[in-house]
Amino acid sequence: MKQTIGIAGLGIMGSAIGANLVRAGFNVAGYDPLPRARRSLARAGGLPALSNGELARRCEVIITSLPSAAALERAARELAAGARRGLLVVETSTLPIQDKERARRVLAAAGATLLDCPLSGTGAQARTRDLAVYASGPRAAVRRCAAVFDGFARAHYYVGAFGSGSKMKFVANLLVAIHNVSAAEALVLGKKAGLDPALVYKVVGDGAGSSRMFQVRGPMMVTGDYRDATMKVEVWQKDMAIITDFARSLGCPTPLFLASAPLYTAALAAGRGKQDTASVCAVLSDMAGLRRARRG
Fold first, then answer.
1. How far apart are CA 273 and CA 137, in angstroms?
2. Where does the chain have alpha helices with state H?
3. CB-based contacts of 86, cutoff 8 Å, min separation 6
4. What are 33-52's pLDDT values in tens digits?
């Protein structure tokens, strides 16, 4: 009998994870408060649930992919209310560690185990199973999830005790923030110099100056169309704030990260909150005085 995996939160990441798990041969049940998200899961071959409590009653492993600490707190209470002893909850969101600790205590009181397992990769990468899982928590519980991770990610790493996964994700996202802005800066410099941006993307992307963000977000920057968001600017602001607070709590300098932050704030102020974070390229293009067709 195929194992049923639950997905709590069917946004950009959760929906992609669910679709990939269906393709990997799992039964997938999912809940999201938005009816259209549940309908999308059904079209992908999953089984919509009407509540997180229903997921807890039907599944042995549940993946949470949630937009905020408040959403995690609410989901943890609902999952705990329906949990069977031994339930494993794989928390993949990027949130402050203290918020995940509170959710862990709520679930532990119901006999369930919460793992801290943030993901490295964009929504576009999630659709193609190009994610890495930073798994943390009890090692034996993480081992139980290995086949599930293989169903939606290209790699998974055990990085230590609960909370270590989030710490690793903060380090990774610091680089994402910097590399995304540096990719935009390079492409704007090329355009300002009169080079074809598509040629810049092709040639520079094949050289030592490339990065994963240059490869993933470069095509959006070339076309100037940021509407098909794989990470929305308004959501990314939450991640930026978490990393800033985390680094400050350690007394660790992050000058390049802090230098990138105003570009994301400018994109938000320009009304690009629901667009992809690649739209920092539009901000830099405006600063450079480049005339362009506004498509996104």
1. 34
2. 12-23, 35-43, 52-58, 69-82, 97-108, 123-127, 139-144, 146-152, 164-192, 197-204, 212-223, 233-250, 255-269, 280-287
3. 60, 111, 112, 113
4. 999 999 999 999 999 999 99
pLDDT at position 158: 98
Is pLDDT of 296 > 80? no
* Rounded Cα distance, 236 and 176, in Å: 11
Could you confirm whether 169 is annotated as catalytic? yes
Residues 6+ positions from 228 with CB-CB distance below 8 Å: 220, 276
Domains of the chain: 4-162 (3.40.50.720), 175-287 (1.10.1040.10)
Half-sphere exposure (CA, 13 Å, Cβ side) for 234? 9
Report residue 1's pLDDT band, with 50, 70 and 90 as the boundaries.
Answer: low
Active-site residue (options: 169, 191, 238, 274)? 169
Type of residue numbered 165:
G
Interacting residues of 254 by C-beta distance below 8 A, sequence separation 6+:
174, 243, 244, 247
Specify the 3-state DSSP secondary structure of 30. Answer: strand
292 pLDDT tier (thresholds 50, 70, 90): low
